[in-house]
Amino acid sequence: YRTRLTHSLEAAQIGTGITAQLQGKFPRLTEYVSLDPYLIETLCLAHDIGHPPFGHGGEIALHYMMHQHGGFEGNGQTFRIVTRLEPYTAEHGMNLSRRSVLGLVKYPNFIDTLTNQDIVPADELRMRQVKAENWHPPKGLFRCDENLFDWLLDPLKPEERDAFMAFNQSAGKHGKTSHKSFDCSVMELADDIAYGIHDLEDAIVMGMVKRAEFSEELEKPLIELKVPWLSDAISKLGDRLFSIEQFERKNAIGALVNCFITAIRIEENPQFTHPLLCYQAVLPHHHSEALALFKQFVYRKVIRKPEVQLLEYKGQQVVMELFEAFSSDPTRLLPENTRSRWLQAEEQGNGHRVIADYISGMTDEFAARLYSNMFVPKRGGVLDTLSL
């Protein structure tokens, strides 16, 4: 089954496919914006690098623990890693080009600006009572990284910078940004296709989806959408997806991916003059609705399954308890390198951010092992701790 790593590899493969077909369809335009397959591959490989252990459970846990200290969100952490934290350079993270960093910024505004305070719970809860639905973070950047964001947008005219950071605010929701760069739009489509189509394959193989459910909840709505080729082919594709022959399923998945890749086109946004902002890779309306149906189906049948949610909740508790422990006595419990960073950050009143950095950089296995060593009796001797 798929992991965040295999998902990123598949997104990268799809991203280079999108690039090739856009270069074939729009040769002059893609040359004008210097669309590059290696850049798109880089963005797809890096797009989830900031996500913490235990998926969205870990993200919600860190946002809850950080909500009075700037919040936490996986995409904002990706920006922080590539520009600051990754030890490839002393102070500049991965030292990526400005264009590469811009391509990773899916939500170009700050969490504190996008937060709708009316929907933030006022009561302090015991950690086991934290409801995930109340603590989904706004998608954006951390205010403490504003100087890096200023550097990123420095080449833009002030009016274009302001327009790029625009967001929509609606009652009962956090603000949502409206724009992204051209490269980012390609990466996001690759991400969505990989999630909606490849994750469906996992759900079928693992028996989480039955043929009858697929027919009723996905096949019928897709036929009604009248998507070119897809609506006519989906019944036969469904038979192949649920075939006992692996090659039949693989061929059907490939056909679905190809259907969406070849439909993508480039549209212009006259609001901007900069080439990387005024062009966007988009799916036609019917294809976009079809992909949304696939993603919603996977979300209902896989992500929302009680067995999956139980694991997310468990991971959520692990992350919150680790955070609580480290923040209770950072100079005693944090590793030496992280401790020195915490001491520097604490002078600016931002020590909690370093703890979030440390925990969000853990793998599921590392976090679970560390939790066991810290909190489970008869586990975690000196040698176990050193092996971490």
Structure notes:
With 388 residues, the protein is mainly alpha-helical. The chain has three domains: 48-105 and 107-179, no CATH class; 187-306, no CATH class; 329-387, no CATH class. 64% of the residues lie in helices and 3% in strands. It contains 21 helices and four strands.
Biggest sheet: strands, sense, closure? 2 strands, antiparallel
- Please, how many domains? 3
Structural class: mainly alpha
Order of helices and strands: HHHHHHHHHEEHHHHEHEHHHHHHH
- Mean pLDDT reading: 95
Distance between the termini: 26 Å
Q: Which value, in Å, is the CA radius of gyration? A: 22 Å
Number of DSSP strand runs: 4
Tally of DSSP helical segments: 21
- Assign an overall shape: globular
Strand content: under 5%
Main β-sheet, spatial strand arrangement: 1-2
Relative helix content: 55-70%
- Low-pLDDT regions: none
